[in-house]
Design goal:
The protein contains 13 helices and 12 strands. The protein is an alpha/beta fold. Strands 1, 2, 3, 4, 5, 6, 7, 9, 11 and 12 form a 10-stranded mixed sheet that branches. A two-stranded antiparallel ribbon has the order 8-10. Helix 1 (14-27) runs parallel beside helix 2 and helix 11 (263-287) runs antiparallel to helix 12 (294-312). The longest helix has 25 residues, at 263-287. The radius of gyration is 19 Å and the shape is globular. Mean pLDDT is 89; it is low at 316-324.
Length: 324
């Protein structure tokens, strides 16, 4: 058995994929590993590039876009590593990051999952360690207000806050979930809790998986000692567009909450989420008249429209599975 099985799901991100694979082979020195690329019906020559430039990579060619969860699950069935790494195609692995993550997992036997530090291309931090969706999150509708109130009251976490603070991202932490751009999971954990939920087509898969993993008694940990560059939204930019991606996030959040909570709690979640979505749509409509950055207004409005659609559309639970 090798140390690590790396799975990269690709959809029309040929140039990003090339950089990602190069970085894996150039920076991983100690851990034994294999690389699986699952292509979701790309039309940009991605598969031809992999075959020519990386013949050692195990390539799965889907005829259509089967979504993130289903694509990863296909590759997981073929993996041989003690650990499985879900790695976005829009990432660049920095010096021995994957070696360090394997060493970390070997030293922390109760860790079922570990995530590393994600940075933007300019080296600034991306928040990637977080808490689960909650009723408070539905009320506030985002991370901005809870984060501001937390700072004002000197609280590490204010109710409804999604991500850990930037300061907390400098320390090893037990967390609820880590971002799926670089998500290392113990193979024994997959055998224990099962594969990714294929009802989630794109977004939220790692959150739902971490819920099951933590319920099974495993830890989810954040490890800042390993670092990768994440061109955030790279696959979204080239694939489905920002508006549709933001709405899919809203669908996924509601699906996950309903799956893991009782009927009463889910009803309260929907009530608060719908109320705040309406309030914020009105607010953003007013701000659109005075703010110069219309793209930001449209993006946030798309999210709140997605929240309402996920609640009042009878097909909401399958909307995120619609093929692109």
């Amino acid at each position: 058995m090798i140390d690590l099985s790396i799975i990269i799901v690709n959809w029309n991100t040929k140039e990003l994929l090339r950089k990602c694979i190069h970085s894996v082979y150039e920076t991983t020195r100690n851990a034994t590993f294999e690389v699986h690329v699952v292509d979701n019906g790309s039309s940009d020559g991605s598969t031809e590039m992999v075959k020519i430039e990386f013949p050692q990579v195990k390539l799965i060619e889907n005829k259509q876009n089967e979504g993130f969860a289903r694509a990863n699950n296909k590759a997981i069935h073929r993996t041989k590593g003690r650990y499985v790494l879900l790695l976005n195609s829009d990432t660049v692995v920095l010096t021995q990051a994957l070696d360090k993550m394997v060493t970390f997992m070997d030293a922390h036997r109760q860790a079922g999952v570990v995530g590393c530090k994600l940075v933007n291309k300019d080296g600034t931090l991306q928040l990637s360690a977080a808490w689960f969706p909650s009723v408070a999150k539905a009320f506030f509708g985002g991370n901005i207000v809870p984060k501001a109130l937390g700072r004002l009251l000197s609280m590490e976490r204010f109710p409804g806050q999604t991500y850990l603070t930037a300061k907390a991202h400098e320390e090893i932490r037990d967390v609820d979930w880590v971002f799926g751009a670089c998500f290392m999971v113990r193979k024994a954990v997959i055998d224990d809790v099962g594969l990714l939920d294929e009802n989630l087509f794109m977004y939220g898969e790692e959150i739902e998986w971490c819920m099951r993993i933590r319920k099974a008694g495993w830890k989810v940990m954040y490890f800042p000692g390993a670092k990768i560059v994440h061109y955030e939204g790279g696959s979204t930019k080239y694939a489905i567009g920002v508006k549709r991606a933001v709405q899919r996030k809203a669908f996924a959040e509601r699906y996950i909450y309903h799956k893991h909570h009782n009927v009463l709690s889910s009803f309260l979640y929907d009530l608060l989420a719908a109320t705040m979505a309406i309030v914020k749509l009105v607010l953003w409509g007013v701000l659109a008249l005075i703010l110069p950055n219309k793209d930001s207004v449209r993006k946030r409005s798309s999210y709140h429209l997605g929240v309402l659609n996920s609640i009042f559309n009878s097909n909401c639970m399958t909307e995120h599975r619609v093929r692109n």
